[in-house]
Amino acid sequence: MTLVTGGPAGPPPGGVPAVPGAAGQVELVPVLIDGIELTVPRGTLVIRAAEQVGIAIPRFCDHPLLEPAGACRQCLVEIATPDREGNLRWMPKPQASCTITVSPGMVVRTQETSEVADKAQHGVMELLLLNHPLDCPVCDKGGECPLQNQAMTNGRGETRFLDRKRTFPKPIRISTQVLLDRERCILCQRCTRFSQEIAGDPFIDLQERGAGQQIGTFSPELLRFATRDDRPGDRRPTGGDETLDPPGEAHALGVTEGPAELDESGQPFSSYYSGNTIQICPVGALTGAAYRFRARPFDLVSSPSVCEHCASGCAIRSDHRRGLVLRRLAGADPAVNEEWNCDKGRWAFQYAQAPDRLRVPLVRDPDTGQLVETSWPDALATAAAGLAAAHRTHGVGVLVGGRATVEDAYAYAKFARTVLDTNDIDFRARPHSAEEEAFLGHVVAGSGLGVTYADLEAAPAVLLVALDPQEESPILALRLRKAARRGLRVHDAAPFLTDGSRKAGASLLPTVPGEESALLRAMAGEATAPLTVTPEQVDAVRDALGAAGAVILVGERLAGVPGGFRAALDASAATGARLAWVPRRAGERGAVEAGALPGLLPGGRPIGDAAARVDVAAAWGVGTLPSAPGRDTAGILAAAEAGLGLVVGGVDPDDLPDPAQARRALAAATVVVSLEVRASAVHDHADVVLPVAPTAEKAGAFLDWEGRLRPFAPALATDALADHAILDELARELGVELGAADTAALRAELASIGGWDGARPPAPAVGSSAVRTARGSADGVVLATWPLLLDAGRMQDGEPYLAGTAHRAVARVSAATAARHGLAADGHVRVSGHLGDVVVPLAVTEMPDGVVWLPTNSRGCAVRAGLGAAAGDLVRLSSAPTGTPARLEGALT
Amino acid sequence: MTDRQPVTLTPVLSRFWDDARSWTLDTYRDHGGYGALRTALDLDPAAVVDAVKASGLRGRGGAGFPTGMKWGFLPPPDGRPRYLVVNADESEPGTCKDTPLLLAAPHLLLEGVAITCHAIGAERAFIYLRGELLHVHRRLLRAVEEAEAAGYLGDDVLGTGRRIGVVVHAGAGAYICGEETALLDSLEGRRGQPRLKPPFPAVAGLYARPTVVNNVESIASVPSIVEHGADWFSGLGTEKSTGYGLFSLSGHVTRPGQYEAPLGITLRELLDMAGGVRAGHRLKFWTPGGSSTPIFTDAHLDVPLDFEAVGTAGSMLGTRALQIFDETTSVVRAVLRWTEFYEHESCGKCTPCREGTYWLAQILHRLEAGRGTAEDVQTLLDTCDNILGRSFCALGDGATSPITSAIQYFREEFEAGMHTPAWELFPYERSATVPVGDYAAGPPRSRELAGSVA
Questions:
Q1: Which of A161, A555, A874, B96 shows its CA 20 to 30 Å from the CA of A197?
Q2: At A251, which CATH number?
Q3: B174 CB near a chain A CB, below 8 Å?
Q4: Which residues of chain B have pLDDT under 50?
């Protein structure tokens, strides 16, 4: 039998890329494995070549996305290679097939055909089980455990071990979320290699040696940093007399960099990617607190899905039992998230099962003024009547939020135009601008798959502007780090070098919020006012961006910088670098495509273009579409203060640029109809509340930041309906057939409308606002702010173990700024805006003077609602009495 | 062995160890020290490499790889750094040759380092010294200071413009760091665990640059080759094991110590010079090259101690650490002590060595205490088979050698462990060469373990 395989299965094995030949072709190498001839690309590991002919060599330390280690020795096979004369020479010892790449004429005998390999594998398995506890019946991994499975296929039935097993006190709490049972660990080092190679976080490492070797966090006792009296006498762990480190206490010795290095539980911040170590652990040594002892894998139903938290687009797997999601895992998608996800995507799913989940519709009782439960027909009729009345008087606008699926956003867009007869629709529940909309219409909408993850891996240089990848799109951050390890140079225009940028080896272009547009204008080659960065830095990055394949990535925060998007377009045009927009929320890219903007119809059609309107009207089977210019989120809210009715789909008022004004608008609106998963601040003023399905309970699709469609089916079968299905009912109640009942039909309809081949909306005008280079003054400093990945967002509710691993809120200022405002380096700082103050620990950071950075929405630090300030605004700093910072209460109870 | 010429000592490295203050630069110069460096610096580097190749010098760290060939593996110079690393992490049980050499004549090594750096085009050498050897560390540091002051090392070696800097680095006490790639990781400040090969150190060693790693004695032998010529060196020893070497006799021998002799000398000849096995006793077993080499018995007294003959007889020349055990010694006890060493020193990276040594030690403890089972000897042999050639580096292999060879020659002693404690068969105070405590009920560790096993 001869098999020719097209390429390596999945990504290049273990960081060894297939070597392209002279013509760019991958060289194929013939090998013989257990008598089967095959050819595989040069650079393929033997273990992977064997997989291609269906031979599973047992393994533990091997992982296709990690560099080979050869540590566990489970995958031993016999290997022979031809010598110079062509005589086959058998290597004297069995070889680890996970570390050896194929060579022409190689002959491999696995356990299937070699007694030596089979005995070696049985021997290693016996040794691995020597110190492994027989606690499979209570172990989370039992039933899906590679050790358990391979012990059955490649192990002895009976143990010969009569002596004393190595034991440890259980478990070590590596973070509030990740627990380590050391006695189960087989020391394959997948977790430590993941932390070092992929995440780049100093999360866990090996300690001690020999049979005492163990994975752990920094342990003063184990590493002899403790006082002499505290040292354990015998290096061999015998168990029983050690106690667990309580979180927040034992690691004090490891903390040297102040409160910015702490998580909410008081431990040193570990990683946003820690859950991956649990997933790749081949035994039950690493477990998640949220799932520990909750279920048996064989009782779970697994549904492939897509993560709803950010625009990275991760494939995930939802495991559920009797209608409840019990855990989520990273799905495998080589083009997008490879096999990784972030801790938020893995663990933030309890929100949909929270006690305040809405199951039945609510209407406001005219007598009591309270929301009361009602039937669907009554709720829909009441909503329809309210909307119809408002439509006649003040009109109705639609706020859809950034978390809708493509289909839901499309249904809202269609509902606004065909039912409410308005272009007052906007998905941007965050700071936004007309310039941003013009940018989205000019280059983003209808542009299809743009810059991809693969493009970033191949890029020579990437410039980040107003984007913190690790906090805003963590898988993008992983890919940038991976690319940087292979030669990509990342340049980050930011006030300070963020953790994600540091791990991608980025060079910092120190940038004061508001200065981004001037920096980009300088990149475009224009003379600008003096910048914080040096002209030499600008020149160097401009040159780098001129290389083929270079990319500029801009974040949604650029909307807060007048002239920023136009400057980005000009910088891209001047350097030749491709430009991509990376929004934070999962629904934003899809909402642009679906036409959930005042000036855009589906597919990037400009509302001001009559032909575009005719196009869409024909597709929708309506006579005309409203042509009057619509209003954006701020405009809609301003109009609502004067009575405009509102349909609100998944918007948290505290995310809006001015939460206080948003509440006033909700209160003043003629009618408020809310479509929500859970109780919301919107409901204080809602007339009708229509419960909708969370992501896990509906079908749909997100467009990730690349513009790649990420469709998913419902993980749970419930009677909850997607937004679009409810809008369909509501439209019918108002006498319009929206045609939005079925997800697939809706997606097909959007696809059939397709892209726009007419004139695109013009680029935002140059100087549509003055190019601002804000600077701190004696009175105030410039606020820099963006949300952290793990913060007080409502979609992280109900998961205290995850919340414990969030970064603690700190204010970052430079040493000079701290001195100027009389702030003690180890103290607390009061940051004051026009609405109020936040008091957080100070973290003196290398950054431009006259700037303070705050997390936008972290625990104890609500910038929009608490300060009433946005990035680029001036705020005041003063010293605050040092107290115990707010801790996460009850996280571990 | 019929036509053998009588073999005598050939003191080269040890020729002035009995001088007062032999370790000083002055003493070394009195004995012609650093003359070879002057000679070498006038030679083309390739000529020095060729001389070492022609001498047949093989690595003195145990493996016996030809030193000149190792130097030849370096890629051509690319203008960027390349390094010489001297492995002075001598920690094998029984091995004690580099330590006295460095104490008595550190400049021998430094001259060898300077010549080797010239030969391989390195400007910086690192000496990785076993951390416990504090006194040696001081001597080496002082010797480097003297050599720099005298212009043998530094930015302008002997006025030739050559730069040769030496860094003396003290390890932190790990046997694994004598494995060359673990040594490099440790030297780089990482956890000392062996690296995956390839890349080999010659291609990507210290700081991912081409690196030669050699044993102390190998490098210290280089000046003599430059001074006396390759022919002189290859005229000593046997055909494929040329030159001289330090033979370290320890244990039950009348005059333990360093005996510098041509390779190919026999233990019988060495024992003759050392006054024989201690008075009133006879040889029972011995190691030819440290604890990682399979043991020999009195049947091997006439095996020429060169790489080939020792290999043919079933062991390895190793580091020529001849540990002599007389008939009072329990082989089970001796093997257990070695096994405990390997268990303690296993780095933990790979399964067979980490778990295997943990298991072997426990079985041997039971056998020593007379609590063995009928399967134990077979389990020992089978477990050794599952470690040998299956572990990541040679440390695992070495851990099995004493066990399998001891069972080969003294199986009945292990089988006696099913019923009789070793300390009853071989009262420990009889084999002790220094006063010991009361071992009538076994050594403390064995008593402790016996108490914990039901």
A1: A555
A2: 3.30.70.20
A3: yes
A4: 1-2, 453-454
- Asked if A29 and A113 sit in the same domain, the reply is yes
CA-based nearest residue in chain B for residue A60: B351
Predicted pLDDT at A260: 80
A167 and A122 share one domain: no
Mean pLDDT for the stretch of residues A43-56:
97
| pLDDT tens by residue, A127-158 | 999 999 999 999 999 999 999 999 999 998 88
Name the residue among B205, B405, B387 with its Cα closest to residue B318.
Answer: B405
Phi-psi region of A29 (alpha: psi -120 to 50; beta: other; left: phi over 0): beta
Query: Do residues A828 and A724 both lie within one domain?
Result: no
* Lookup result for tokens 């008091």: A839
Closest CA to A645 of A385, A407, A431: A385
Which residue intervals of A355-403 are DSSP H helices? 376-393
Q: Would the CB atoms of B348 and A92 count as touching at under 8 Å? A: no
Task: Clarify whether residues A164 and A211 are in a common domain.
Answer: yes
Chain B residue with CA closest to A162: the answer is B363
Q: What residue ranges in A558-637 does DSSP mark as E strands?
A: 578-582, 600-601, 605-606
A303 within some domain = no
Q: Residue B390 and residue A94: Cβ atoms within 8 Å? A: yes
What CATH number is given to the structural domain containing A822? 2.40.40.20
| Cβ <8 Å between A119 and B386 | yes
Q: Answer yes or no: is A735 within a domain.
A: yes
Candidates A124, A131, A215: best to mutate against B (most CBs of B within 10 A) is A124
Q: What is the pLDDT of residue A766?
A: 77
Q: Does A623 touch chain B (CB under 8 A)?
A: no
Please judge whether A211 and B352 are an interchain contact, meaning their C-beta atoms are less than 8 angstroms apart.
Answer: no
A270 falls in which pLDDT band (50, 70, 90)? confident
- Contact between chains at B453 and A74 (C-beta distance less than 8 A): no
| Residues in A touching B356 (Cβ below 8 Å) | 127
**pLDDT value of residue A14:** 39
Round to whole Å and give the CA distance between A73 and A71: 6
Q: Which of residues 210-239 of B touch A (CB under 8 A)?
A: none
Q: Which of A837, A834, A820 is nearest to A880 (CA)?
A: A837
Q: Do A449 and A539 have their domain in common?
A: yes
Nearest to B356 among A72, A127, A160 (CB): A127
Contacts of A126 in chain B (CB under 8 A): 386
Burial B435-453 (b: 16+ CB within 10 A, else e): eeeebeebbeebeebbeee
- Whether A769 is in a domain gets the answer no
Q: Which of A583, A606, A639 is the last residue of a domain?
A: A583
Q: Which residues pair with A279 in a beta bridge?
A: none
What is the reported pLDDT for B84? 98
A91 touching chain B per CB within 8 A? no
End-of-domain residue from the set A266, A293, A320: A293
Residues 6 or more apart from B197 whose CB is under 8 A from it? B181
- Do A636 and A541 have their domain in common? no
> Is A16 among the domain residues?
no
Confidence class of residue A776 from pLDDT cuts 50, 70 and 90? low
Q: What is the pLDDT of residues A484-513, one digit of tens each?
A: 999 999 999 999 999 999 999 999 999 999
| Structure confidence at residue A893 (pLDDT) | 31
ipTM: 0.94
pLDDT of residue A530: 87
Structural domains of chain A, count: 5
Say what the pTM is: 0.92
The percent of chain A in helix, strand and coil, each rounded to the nearest 5, is 30, 20, 50
Two structure tokens written together for A112: 């299937």
Instruction: Check which CATH number belongs to the domain holding A45 and give it.
Output: 3.10.20.740
Co-location of A556 and A601 in the same domain: no
What is the domain extent for residue A179? 131-293
